[in-house]
Amino acid sequence: MKKKESKSYHTGTVKKSIKINASKQKVWRKISNIVGLPSWLIDVKKTVYLSKKKRGVGSIRKITFNDGNIIEEHVVAWENGKYFTYVATDGLPLRAYVATISIKPKTKNSVQLTWQSYLNSKKMTDKEFLEFLVFMGAFYETSLANLKNSLEK
Q1: Model-level pTM?
Q2: pLDDT tens digit sequence for 71-116
Q3: H or E element, residue 18
């Protein structure tokens, strides 16, 4: 008889970086438009504000994906031109998801953009969690490549 794999909570991180050949101002303008995701984030159907506030701490967005999944995210930290941090409050198979997108100038016309997240799962098997981490890593990489392509035009 095959032993049933038990489900438990898992903690992990995902971190992806990309060099973008565009000015810091241009990159920040694009990423700080927190509802501008359909132009670079893969599989996003639409993104809308759930808050009157459009930038900075306290702004809230709702992301609708092509598969119908809906995620709500709240901006919890923001430093103009440098980074912002957001938490997902609904829509993921997770108990906690906190992510930061940051940019560091490399030269006058290039930046290093890093997207890093911490996550804690709902109850799942080790295999399910590893598959989720791989999925998130691929999602970040493809989305960052789209962002790079859109900014380097």
Answers
A1: 0.94
A2: 999 999 999 999 999 999 999 999 999 999 999 999 999 999 999 9
A3: strand 11-20
Which DSSP string corresponds to 104-129? EEEETTEEEEEEEEEEEESSB-HHHH
Is the separation of the CB atoms in 111 and 27 below 8 Å? yes
Strand order from edge to edge, sheet including 11-20: 11-20, 110-121, 94-107, 83-90, 70-79, 60-65, 44-49
For residue 69, the Cα-to-chain-centroid distance in whole angstroms is: 15
CA 33 to chain centre: 13
CA-to-CA distance for 80 and 84, rounded, in angstroms?
8
The Cα 141–Cα 82 span in angstroms is 20
Q: What are phi and psi of 82, to 5 degrees?
A: -125, -55
Residues 57 and 71 sit within 8 Å (Cβ to Cβ): no
Q: Which domains are assigned to the chain?
A: 11-151 (3.30.530.20)
What pairs with residue 78 in β-bridges?
Answer: 84
Six token digits for residue 45: 């159907």
Q: How many CB atoms lie within 10 A of CB 64?
A: 16
